[in-house]
Amino acid sequence: MKINVGCGWECRDGWLNVDNTQKHQRVNYPITFMDATVTWPYEDDKFEAMLSEHMIEHLPEEKGLFALKEAYRTLKPGGVARITCPNRDFFTTLTDNNHPFVVNYCRIIMNNTIPSAARVVSRTLNEQGHVWVPTPLMLCRQMQKAGFKDVKKVTYGRSEHEVFDGIEEFNGIREYETLCVEGTK
C-alpha cells in the first residue's frame, strides 16, 4: 500500500490519497481526510511508499518534522519516502525576469504576461500559506531527524525507486522550482 500525503487535487491511481482540506472529490479519486500534523490513523509498518508533494512548506518546521516522523512510523522497513517542495536555494538566487520559470509562472499561475522574478520569489517565500520553505540541506536534516536513512536530494521526475521514477509532471514550472528529497526506513 502507498500513501500520498497532502494530495490536494493530485490524486494518484493505486495510492491512498489523503489531505486535510475539504476539496471536492474527483470521480474515481476519493480523498481521505487526514491531518498530517497529528498522529496518523494507521498502524506501524503499513505502507511501502509515502509521497508528499508541495505540502511540507505549508507546515511550521516542528509540525513538518512530526509529519515526517509519522511517515517513518507508518512505513514498512525498507519503505521509501519522497518529499517535494519549493527549493529555497532556487528562489533566493532567482533574479532573471526572462528565466523560463518566471515567464511560465507569471503567465500560467498569475495570469500576467509581464514576468517579474521579484514578485514570484516574494509570492513563493512569503505567501500562499508557505511557512517553511527549506533548502536541500534543511529538508535532508529534517528527514534524518525523523529517522530516515540514505536521505538524499534527487532529480525532479527521477528516482532509483521504481514507485517514484517519472512520478512528477513537467509543466514548465515545477521542474525548475521543486526540491525532491528521498529517504528510506
For the structure shown, list the relevant keywords.
single chain; 185 residues; alpha/beta; Rossmann fold; 7-stranded mixed sheet; 6 helices; 28% helix; globular
Protein topology:
Layout: E1 2-5, E2 16-19, E3 32-33, E4 47-53, H1 61-74, E5 75-86, H2 88-92, H3 100-108, H4 117-126, H5 136-145, E6 149-154, H6 174-177, E7 178-184
Parallel strand pairs: 1-2, 1-4, 2-3, 4-5
Antiparallel strand pairs: 5-7, 6-7
- The name of the CATH topology is Rossmann fold
The biggest beta sheet, please?
7 strands, mixed
Q: Could you spell the SSE succession in H and E letters?
A: EEEEHEHHHHEHE
CATH architecture group name? 3-Layer(aba) Sandwich
| Rg from Cα | 16 Å
CATH secondary-structure class: Alpha Beta
Structure report:
The chain has a single domain, classed as Rossmann fold (3-Layer(aba) Sandwich). The protein has helices spanning 61-74, 88-92, 100-108, 117-126, 136-145, 174-177, and strands at residues 2-5, 16-19, 32-33, 47-53, 75-86, 149-154, 178-184. It has a 7-stranded mixed β-sheet with strand order 3-2-1-4-5-7-6. The two termini are 15 Å apart. Strand 4 (47-53), helix 1 and strand 5 (75-86) form a beta-alpha-beta unit. The protein is α/β, with parallel strands linked by helices and 185 residues long. Helix content is 28%, strand content 23%.
Question: What's a quick, concise take on this entry?
Answer:
The chain has 185 residues and is an alpha/beta fold. The protein has helices at 61-74, 88-92, 100-108, 117-126, 136-145, 174-177, and strands spanning 2-5, 16-19, 32-33, 47-53, 75-86, 149-154, 178-184.
